[in-house]
Amino acid sequence: MSESSAEAVAAVASATGAAGNWRRATGLAGAAIGVVAAGAAAGVAIERLTVGRGMRKKARLALDSAGPYGSLRGVPGTATAEDGTELYYEVDDVDPEAVPALGPRRRRLFGRKAPAPVTVVFSHGYCLSQDSWHFQRAALRGVVRTVHWDQRSHGRSGRGVQQVRDGVPVSIDQLGRDLKAVIDAAVPTGPIVLVGHSMGGMTVMALADQYPELVRDRVVAVALVGTSSGRLGEVNFGLPVAGVNAVRRVLPGVLKALGQQAALVEKGRRATADLFAGVIKRYSFASRDVDPAVARFAERMIEGTPIDVVAEFYPAFTDHDKTGALEHFAQLPVLVLAGIGDLVTPSEHSEAIADLLPDAELVLVPDAGHLVMLEHPEVVTDRLADLLTRAGAVPAGATVGGYGSTSSSAQPG
Questions:
Q1: Three-state secondary structure readout of 237-250
Q2: What are φ and ψ of residue 81, in 5° steps?
């Protein structure tokens, strides 16, 4: 263990009152530090922090009070999942007079007159919330109808009923059925564009796998951002081979133990927020000059995911394999986009998806990590706007709203 890793473990041990049991503290700290980074493995080496803890705390409070990110709200609604879980969503509507002329695919699907405008449904990733699409939501407001929802046990949605009541593990298939429930409630008619980041992309694939007729009859385009169709068990999270193999052996058991001691672990996370911040930044972004307010925004979303929820969801990724579901997107306009520096779902996974969808647009964004839509929003939004134009969701030549850049090194992919 590196010196900086030892410091992290010692801090958590002190916070939890477990300094006398070094082995137990080491296991809890290593797992907590790793899994909180939105899917990162436990036991990573933490860079030495040179700014005083008090100064970092004041900086976080200042950014929390000043940052506008995640403040956009729409018309709220709830959908009920098959197990009774309440799924929260918000709708941003547009003026019906602004609906564009029908594109060729929409004419083919709906005749000369569409029954409803295109709706873009955004699905977020693990340990995040619908607010992770802040920049894209701001840019598309007034341009196209959008739905943003929180996955079960995330954001404003309710805790998974089957998980809490029955101890049933979360599955990606279940998330696909959750998305279907949201579509039924928020978009009962009309054409749909599906957009998913990370776990949200996997959710979109699970929807297609279970409801191919929905894709065939109503989906007019798909965007898969920083996601994977399978083989996530082979990801090394930027760790040495020996280290990641050790993590894979012990992590399931450690996560189960963490979920059973949620209150203790949450206390430790709060006490060592400065240490978590370094890990979160490493696994969220690749560029060095990300806006500190954006980095803090991402940190807040991940911090807001209870450790027992982190533990509930993690095993589902190892089992995830939706490669076969991609065939349902073969005849659609598809955008596959990833950050080249993504350590959580490496860009090679996006390339593998694009290989199976040869007509898809593949965009690899340099100097970008897992949260590419926050790190380089201008690239993601431009490519998404182009996809919507190709799908006939917005008129050719339409302009989206301002969305800015969170990194001076942002470059088009």
A1: CCCCHHHHHHHHHH
A2: -70, 170
User: Mapping DSSP to helix (H, G, I), strand (E, B) and coil, where does residue 360 land?
Assistant: coil
Cα(74)–Cα(77) distance, rounded to whole angstroms?
9
What's the CA gap between 181 and 342, in Å, rounded?
A: 31
Instruction: Tell me what the mean pLDDT of segment 8-31 comes to.
Output: 38
Dig out the tokens for 156 from the structure: 């404003």
Q: Count the neighbouring beta carbons within 10 Å of the beta carbon of residue 394.
A: 26
Domain extents for the chain?
3-66+236-317, 75-230+320-390
HEC profile of 198-212: CHHHHHHHHHHHHCH
pTM above 0.85, yes or no: no
| Segment 323-336, tens digit of pLDDT | 999 999 999 999 99
Going edge to edge, which strands form the sheet with 75-80? 75-80, 86-92, 145-149, 119-123, 192-197, 219-225, 334-339, 361-365
Yes or no: say if 328 and 215 are a contact pair by the CB < 8 Å rule: yes
Residue entry with tokens 């949605």: 157
Are residues 237 and 210 in contact, defined by beta-carbon separation less than 8 angstroms?
no
**The two three-digit tokens of residue 101, written as one number:** 């002329």
Class (C level, CATH) for 75-230+320-390: alpha beta
pLDDT tens digits, one per residue of 355-409: 999 999 999 999 999 999 999 999 999 999 999 999 988 876 666 665 444 543 4
